[in-house]
Design a protein that fits this description.
By secondary structure, the chain is an alpha/beta fold. It is about 35% helix and about 15% strand. It has two domains: about 70 residues, no CATH class; about 120 residues. The termini are far apart. About 20% of the residues are buried.
């Protein structure tokens, strides 16, 4: 770089004469030497030495080494796990309305209550279970299964009465099953005879029905 008084020469000339950066030559008018221009020219020279393949023959917007390195790095590809849904929270508790509450057996049918305690077997002997406002005859020991127990003398009913009983019971069982499943329980029905079981399944074969053999 050369500079001289503007009064003597009128124009001060600064030339960065290295052949590799001739394109970046800077001409300064007046006595002021612009340090920024010098630094940019030196950066350009260093960049050309480090990344000659990135240099274009025409003068234009300069690309900094940081930008270039970022462009040269391959972008990370999403892994298969990124597409997986999040794991469900552990130890999720049922809503308070779904917690089983032992309550005394309703009615005074001892044979029915004994069957309800013995067959599942009942987690709370001598007690019904209240779940979401609904009475169930038993909550099975060791597994989340709510039970409805029927000890009707179904086989002794007339055909007409059997049809009426089945229609009413299936409607009640569907309601109980919906409440149980909404609270995270399974639902089972116990009946005394195979004939009663088959009559219920003929009406709704999605019910889970077990023959208990209990009598009254």
């Amino acid at each position: 770089m050369a500079s001289t008084d503007a009064a003597a020469l009128g124009v001060g000339v600064c030339i960065l004469a290295a052949p590799e950066i001739a394109v970046g030559a800077v001409i300064v008018v007046g006595v002021v030497v612009v340090a920024v221009a010098i630094k940019e020219a030196l950066d350009a020279y260093e960049f050309r030495q480090l990344y000659p393949e990135e240099v274009k023959p025409t003068f234009g917007t300069r690309v900094t080494p940081r930008e270039t390195v970022a462009k040269r790095r391959p972008l990370p590809q999403p892994s298969g796990q990124d597409l997986l849904p999040p794991l469900p929270p552990r130890n999720r508790r049922r809503p308070s309305r779904c917690e089983p509450i032992p309550v005394p057996h309703r009615g005074g049918d001892d044979d029915h209550n004994t069957c309800a305690d013995r067959i599942p077997p009942n987690r709370y002997p001598g007690m019904d279970v209240l779940v979401d406002g609904k009475h169930f005859d038993a909550l099975q020991v060791g597994v989340p299964v709510l039970w409805e127990i029927k000890t009707d003398r179904f086989d002794t009913y007339s055909e007409f009465l059997q049809g009426q009983v089945v229609e009413k019971q299936v409607m009640e069982m569907r309601e109980e099953r919906d409440i149980a499943e909404a609270c995270g329980y399974r639902f089972a029905v116990g009946v005394s005879t195979e004939q009663h079981k088959q009559a219920l399944l003929d009406e709704d074969d999605s019910l889970h029905i077990v023959v208990t053999g209990c009598t009254r």
